[in-house]
Amino acid sequence: MVAVEAFPARELGNASFLLADQDHGVGLVVDPYRDVDGYLTRADALGIKLTHALDTHLHNDFATGRGELASEAGTAIGELDAGQDLAFGGATLRALHTPGHTPDHKSYLLVEDGRPQALFSGGAVMVGAIARTDLFGPHLAVHLALEALRTLQVRLRGLPDDLAIFPTHGSGSFCGTGGRSGHETTLGHERSTNPFFLTTEVMPFLARALNQQRFPAYYRDMAGINSVGPALLGRRPAPPRKLSASDVDWLMAEGAAVVDVRRGRDYDRGHIPGSYSIGLDGPFSAWVGWLIPRGRPIVLAGGTDSQHADAQRQLHRIGFDSIAGALDGGMDAWQSSGRTKSTFETKDVEDMAEWILSAEPMTVVDTRDEHEWAAGHVPGAVHLYVPDVPYRAGEIPSEAPVAVHCASGYRAGIAASLLEQAGLTRIIHVNGQYSDWDRLHLAEVHP
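RE: above sequence
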């Protein structure tokens, strides 16, 4: 019997899957990340040999680990063509052509004792959604959306309702179209609840599939990297090099980006001037990849050794390997070296309500995406989605305080650091849920 174990990458909203047949001593990985030590350690514990690594599609959001597993475990690196079967222990894995998210997308059907048991669906079926169809550009978006419709209504038609579905993309993935959290469902549940299954007419389906938020800038070259294969890291890459405050100063002068990995509130209390606030408590790698060009040296700061190692791992997953090192000793080391720190004011929405009602001069900056803004916003606020801040910060008046908010405080913290880089000085980082603005009757809602 084949057991399935998920390996989530929460910062990406993804999961990869280890399939283990202990009776036959073999295992394989579907959609592996580039950091492969977790799979290898688990395989050793189960007493199995990893024989294959398969990708469901050419990924735009992370670097494939197939080459890494071939190097470290000797897994086969060949592709399965659509319709081809792979004998795996006592089971069979069949490649199904399920285009939509990408033109050549495949899902893998696990068959045991002649009966379909599970489908590893990549982005063809998500929990409550499908993966987006516009990553290859607007010229293919409609065609791929139509292919996604055919996949749901025709290509998967003959599969049973009780079939387990294990999607790679999940809620929180910029590759997704929304949906619910989780990386396991059944085909029957999705057929009865997933709006993309329930939308069978072409025009409503296209309207739903193509009305998506923007995606991170690093996606543009990720498919090219995966088509040739990223550089090999080895099973356990060395941790980030420890840097002194003077090292960090010099690297910044040479053009390195300093990324502070702490929570926003901790960053607000004191940080390296000109650094980025991108905490590990959110989609860290996606925002680094959106805001910092690939190849620019990155210095990690603010965290513990283990947090810096985690940050490096997450960056390796998206093919960002130019990690110059990490500040040793945190902000204490920075300040004890005699260097200055910057601070932001931190306020909750309740505090902002008093300020707004007092009519004192202030600019409110809403850093949510276009869909969120259109659904409702604070009257008089300036809309600057986070990726636009570096290019439009000059539109913000510098005479009055600038209060930066989003839906939770995470993106607002990133945007606040970008505004500081642009030269603004009195910045207020607003924490709390966007619903708090509505609760206090300070937001307009647009149904």
